[in-house]
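Not sure how to ask, but would you mind making up any protein sequence you like and the tokens describing how it folds?
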Amino acid sequence: MHLGDLSHPNQLHGLSTAELTDVARQIRERHLEVVSTSGGHLGPGLGVVELTLALYQTLDLDRDRIVWDVGHQAYPHKLITGRYDSFDTLRQKGGVAGYLKRSESDFDHFGAGHASTSISAALGMALARDRRGEDFRCVAVIGDGALTGGMALEAINHAGHLPETPLVVVLNDNDMSISPPVGALSTYLNRARLSPPMQFLSGSVEESVRHLPFMGGELPAELNRLKGSMRRLAVPKVGAVFEELGFTYMGPIDGHDIAEMVRTFQAAHREGGPVLVHVVTTKGKGYPYAEADQVGYHAQSAFDLTTGKAIPSKTPKPPSYSKVFGQTLVKLCEQNSKVVGITAAMATGTGLDLLQKAIPDQYVDVGIAEQHAVTLAAGMACEGLRPVVAIYSTFLQRAFDQLIHDVGIQNLPVTFVLDRAGIVGADGPTHQGQYDISYMRAIPNFTVMAPKDEAELQRMLVTCLSHDGPTALRIPRGSGIGVPLMEEGWEPLALGCGESLREGDDLLLVAYGAMVQPALDTATLLEESGLSATVVNARFLRPLDAALIHPLARRIKRVVTLEEGALAGGFGAAVLESLSDASIPVELFRIGIPDQLVDHATPQQSKEALGLTPVQMAERIRERFQLAPSLEQQSEAHYGLLSS
């Protein structure tokens, strides 16, 4: 069967193991072809190809429900559910989403971009099924990295107390999340995966049997059953935790042996209660470079399939904000042993991998457990340490209560670095960092700031660690704007003090963080049409620099706020409230992300769709205040005069 002919996963039913193995080969080829060209998640999907095919042999997706945790491991699912031909539009504007999306396909039963949600969702579906008296299967596929998240453990705890509720949880155990998972649970699973009997039964002996002349490359059913029985006898304790929590435990089984998985999944469906099937897979399976570097090939930009190396950019780029943060934190940790960097399974993405390599004693990875990371930091701060918690803006949302209750109310000196703040591009709505301005400005005692460039980021990190209270620093995704970094002499900024970067009498542009440089570019365009603008780099969201902004607003009257975040409760709202409280009458125009989801596209495409490029913002400002005709209109008028 050709993969392109698959429009429905039920077409896999009845295929032989050899035929499914051929489909697996085609899935990997298509997966590698597309991701090497356009970029995307690589290792997770390559590791679950056989698992997907075997599981779907036992499901009817017209009726049954499957929930893939996170969703970046579900590229094989997309390829066998009618998206083969459109797969080369992956993560592009208007194309196939990088995560599961209910509006994209009837087979995407639950969408998620954050880890550890699958068991809760699948259990909810199962309870709804039972309440309605229906009969279909509910399956959650979760990685061992996602199992470190508290929400997954909460769901297991609940499901285990529902012995009459059929639910299958497939534990995709590849000893990885984005980075290697941490903690006691990971160590526990490793004891099974790496035990000598398990290695013996999964390794050379099996390969030797397969290559006997009379075997024809296949293990007979009897030997397969014997292998499974011996494996369970060899590692009898690995399932004890799950059994004690009320699950029937099956495994560990080879996640690349289709026949064995089909038999196990069929047995799991017959159990009638909560079942956990422990499947051992290899992240990046089938592509040697991805198998050898499972962190680096978790996700990739465009790369050369033959060499595995990234295709270099045509133009050199400044270092990323994440890298600048990581390098700066290393220097600050060298100067102060009380400073500790904390991440929630995102060392590479946040730049904390630099600290991990340089000073491992001042580095902590808690796994996919953002809530725990925040309160852990609060406990450290109580005992005199200066924790710096680096988490993506979109992931820190999961710890909102801890930010308020455990840090803010107690006024503890914890620093939060919110990476990927603002528009992030191809990952889509689940990953856009558009809400942190709104949720951080509501939390008591926090000082909240955002740098205009990478050098100001360095000074702000020093500012955070010099302040005796909670602080938050938002940084955008991607490269800086190219300003020289400071090597020494970092002085903290005065809290709540912005700066005026440009003088003008017609408009006041007050910009926050990554929107400062676009505000300057916008002011230049406005000047070309005869309008002069004062541009302010606010620097701080809390406290806002009223001493700078209020006098300018009184004089200029026309105020524009610019932010790369949600307008609802955002930076512009903070300026508006401040001016209103001071009874300063102004015409105020807020520019930012309106009340809508930002779909997957390149960051530039998203900004264009939202009207956030300098050319668009200049035009919007002119129209809003009816100050002057647009440059296009002026050109047309000039041409008309010449013609007449």
